Fold this protein.
Amino acid sequence: MSQWSFVAAAYAVMLGGTGLLLAISYLAMKRAEK
């Protein structure tokens, strides 16, 4: 059961990092347009 909590944590970190990277790149793109 502990391995599933580790898998869930790994997925959460991966998705969070991907979302953060997308948000940063999106904000940088919007800022560069002006």
In short: The mean pLDDT is 93. Residues 2-33 form the longest helix (32 residues). The two ends are 51 Å apart (CA to CA). The helical segments are 2-33.
